[in-house]
Amino acid sequence: MISKKLAAEVINVASQTGADFVEIFAENSFNTYLEVENGKVEETRNSNISGVGLRLLKGTQSVYGSTGDISRKSLLELAKELSASFNGQKQIEDVKSFKLKKHKNFNTPSTPLTSIPTEKIISLLKEINSVLSSHDKRIVKSTTAMIIKTNDNEIFNSKGLMFKNYREYGRFIIESVASENGKIETRFDGPATQGGWEFFTKTLDLKALAKENAEKVILMLQAKEAPSGKFPVIIGNGWGGVIFHEACGHQLEATSVAKGMSVFSGKKGEQIANPIVSAYDDPTIPNEWGSFNVDDEGNQPVKHELIKNGILTGYLIDDFNGRRMNEAGNGASRRQSYKYEPTSRMSNTYIAPGKSTPEEIIKNTKLALYAVSFGGGSVNPATGEFNFGCSEAYIVKDGKITEPVRGATLVGNARDILMHIDMVGNDLALGQGMCGSSSGNIPVNVGQPTIRVDEIVVGGRGGSIYEF
Amino acid sequence: MNFKKFFELAKLNGLESADIEEVRSKSLSIEIFKGEIVSYSVSIDKNFTARGIYNGKMGFVSVESDDKSTPEYIVKTIKEAASLNESSDEAIIFKGSPKYKKKRVYNERLSSFGAEEAIKMLHEIEDKLYAKSDKIKDVEVGFSLSDNSSVLANSYGLNLKTKNNYFYFYAEIVLSENENETKSAFDIFFDNDLDKFDLDKFVDELVEKGLSKLNGESIESGKHKIVLKENCVASLLAAAISNASSESVQKHSSVFEGKLNQKIFSSKITIEERPLEKNLFYTYFDDECVATCNKKIIDKGVLKTFFYNLATAKKDGVETTGNARGRGSKMGIGFTNIFLKPGKLSEEQLFEKIEEGVYVTSLAGLHAGLNPVSGDFSLQAEGFHIKGGKLGKALKLFTLSGNLFKVFNDVIALGNNSKLLSSSINSVSMAVKNLKISAE
Question: B147 and B227: one domain?
Fold first, then answer.
């Protein structure tokens, strides 16, 4: 990408005016997208992301620049332009050489997706596509796609350290559109991994997943409108963890905590959740979608305990925001690409398993919405107000799952929602998604066992839940 | 990259025709927090997107790196992608429109606006915001300046250029009066003419917006008459008219299928696309080099046209409308500068008109809570009571649910407060019949 000699020259120019830390993030990554729609290859897309990000820190001030032009002239110009933001004396010594810092590889060996012939991937896409399209004639559009994304970067910093990092991400998209009598329903599944080809051909049963996708889109096409009001909700495992991601995870990132712009700023050691709730963020789980061997400022990732028995025990901290908090970064710094200044972000975040079986939770519930699958959500960390939209839900009545309902959105406030979790299941699972925030879109896992929330506001287009 | 050499290489490798676009942009972003510059970033971007026809099929690629090997890599990748392509869409590289309506939108004065001056203004905004009320606990203010240029050329000798620049100021305030309630308010001002930015007005409006949100009262779940603020109307409108994409219609995933020249919305609704309007979103050609044109999409509730690109137009036997979008990928459909025709009433008159109801000022969770295909939505909302025809108190958190297509059929009246939003939609406030509210 760029030579060590040039990296040192750029860092030394950038630190002339008083920066106390300078870092270069050089990247050359590739994306491939292969799509089969209604049995035909409709799109094969390739793109390349290539450039350098340069960051200068001085106390709690940060200056960042990125350029796609990685010539010596361009990088030195950028270094000069950025260093002009400070007007002090040189504080740190010139870098003469870099020591390559090795890191542990958490992932187990697998066959890289980039080594699989495109024809072989297309054949798999067509096979799974036919499962969707042949299921029911009401399915009017079936799409299967594979996304392969590499993230290849090198980090150099003014401490004379160098880090190399290569990640390969793979995602299999299954999407169906069903239509009947003017009603249209869509369903999306997108299992994703850093575990290579074997994840899609051995770990997963893609045919079964496609069959379930097709069955559920037809089921939800016929479902009644979800009820509205405030009542208990059982939230399914895996993707249900998006509630913790939105309602709590973002507010534990130093990005908002450091400035006091989070509802959980200064709350360490306080009870913020029901004592049956413990939660973690773990970037070290082998092959997982949100994992990394080294974070995007070169730090070693660790498993973070966030909540233990309802007590807030930790935040996710990057080096820069850590300065404001008087705490060291803890390996949680991430960015989409060289174009983004890194900041603290989640990785694989989950509520730890409890003691109840999912069956017990349902059996012990008189009347509730059972939200199984979600389209996503969003939160304002400053106010704590969040929302998330269900894509698959049912009514639970007298301990039994009764009928499917569509179109429910749950809203609440992070301040109290975790206190309202009154049952935690033993069936922890993870679900993959993309998380968007100030340092771009990054792969994350959300996760949880089945949980029950004793009350939350549900917005549906149907009437009262008592009418079911 | 030398385009001529690229086209020569493309021809040598058997590409029947090709096009390539180079986009360059430079942007500066600054953020201030508690008197300190917490973020200062400069970004210099360069990107090439190219397409080519090989054996009658289209292939495409997007590249950032620019060295000696780049033209070869582009041609090779286009050939590989074209060889795999099984789409029934006809592959067309357009020779060029007879006429293009090119206007100058670049503001030279803005290009010389320096960071120092921006920082001074950010400090001023921050200081003024804190000084307005002790209920304002935190303030985050930022500025961004962007300068962009592009060249789109094809192997038939067409060469189209664009150049634009713009800036925006934004601020978020966090307010609270007691420990149990925190509210925030955000505002953004964008333009390419700095003289239009009224700093004091920006500060005053943001503070008023923030303070009005405190001490919210509850509302009963159920159906209410609603006045939707222009930004909420714009969000719903964008989702609704995405169904006018000819691609969605041809793939049977649009409720507008078979509805051309039929009444789909209230006769109070007229929607135009005006890509040639001289503002920040002005664009005189689409991603296939077709000249754009202003047109009515919905006239008094009647659907007048779908949005077309070359391939979808060919399928329907009509002319393209210049709505191709998707450099670097399969050509899709897009739109810009959407104008919702204003009504005659001010917002206050809209409140009087519905007497009792809810004024919805913000909607959140659109990506998960709104299905643009079915039109069903259930969204996190903020707003105020409307009582006795007047604006009342703020409301606690609630959800607003309904169906997009029904909303634009159930129009009571439209406001006269036309505003261009950053989504390139010119929107107005709108009073609608019953929508469902769910709350505590």
Answer: no
